[in-house]
Design goal:
The chain has 216 residues and is mostly helical. The chain has one domain: Serine Threonine Protein Phosphatase 5, Tetratricopeptide repeat (Alpha Horseshoe). Helix content is 69%, strand content 0%. The chain is globular and about 45 Å long. The mean pLDDT is 96. The protein binds adenosine-5'-diphosphate and magnesium ion.
């Protein structure tokens, strides 16, 4: 494929596998971030969910990107407790609905799917930018993807822009007081800590970009 080629089911599957790998590698890091301003289970929650996704992929490979997203959604919703399971599950489910049964995703569709995923997290969790949640990673990522797609960038560049914006968004949570989730119980004591869900979101979006890069 060239840099501008649309992304297919193999990309989506590779994205999920790379997400599982990065979550497993950062399990302890995510636990430590959540221990500082939550209950210390974020790394464990996500690792359990993505390990279950890997098992499902070993049994059967989805035929379309949408089917891969739906598999991820169903697995995360059923295997991951806490706030993050339903939130990530909703994100993948909305992305699946946005792409339908398309065999490949172009830049515009990717940007739309990311926006749908973010909108699902907002619909479920009611967080806005600045509330020190995963939305602080997702919303800049969605905006960067939309503007890259509008500028004519290919899927690899769209996802790279989203991942870079999400990483900056995760860093931007450091000085914030939390207004949603467990960290909101801490008031000003949350200041100086990075939101674990924003960090895991940035990791997962970087995995999407790396999978796209590898397929191009
Ligand atoms: P729990 O908080 O139930 O222990 P996790 O530790 O797995 O669940 O996930 C915590 C992360 O979930 C937070 O770091 C934050 O990014 C995200 N989160 C929590 N509540 C919300 C919300 N209402 N909207 C968006 N994200 C949220
Ligand atoms: Mg937690």
């Amino acid at each position: 494929m060239t840099d501008n080629a649309a992304l297919d089911a193999a990309w989506a599957i590779d994205w999920l596998r790379r997400s599982a790998a990065v979550v497993a590698e950062n399990r302890v890091h995510l636990i430590e971030l959540d221990r500082a301003i939550g209950d210390g289970d974020h790394g464990e929650n996500l690792d359990r969910g993505f390990s279950a996704i890997l098992e499902k992929l070993d049994a059967e490979l989805p035929a379309t990107p949408g089917a891969a997203f739906k598999l991820a959604a169903m697995t995360l919703m059923s295997k991951v407790g806490g706030a993050a399971g339903p939130l990530y599950g909703t994100a993948y489910l909305r992305a699946a609905t946005a792409v339908g049964d398309a065999a490949t995703l172009d830049s515009a569709t990717l940007a739309t799917a990311l926006a749908a995923a973010r909108d699902g997290v907002v619909a479920r969790g009611k967080a806005a930018v600045g509330d020190k949640t995963m939305i602080d990673a997702w919303t800049p990522a969605v905006d960067a993807a939309a503007s890259a797609a509008a500028d004519g960038a290919g899927p690899v560049a769209v996802l790279a822009a989203a991942a870079t914006a999400a990483e900056a968004g995760a860093v931007s949570t450091d000085p914030l007081v939390a207004h949603k989730g467990r960290a909101s119980y801490l008031g000003e004591r949350a200041i100086g800590h990075r939101d674990p869900g924003a960090v895991s979101s940035a990791m997962i979006l970087r995995a999407a970009a790396q999978a796209a890069e590898a397929s191009s």
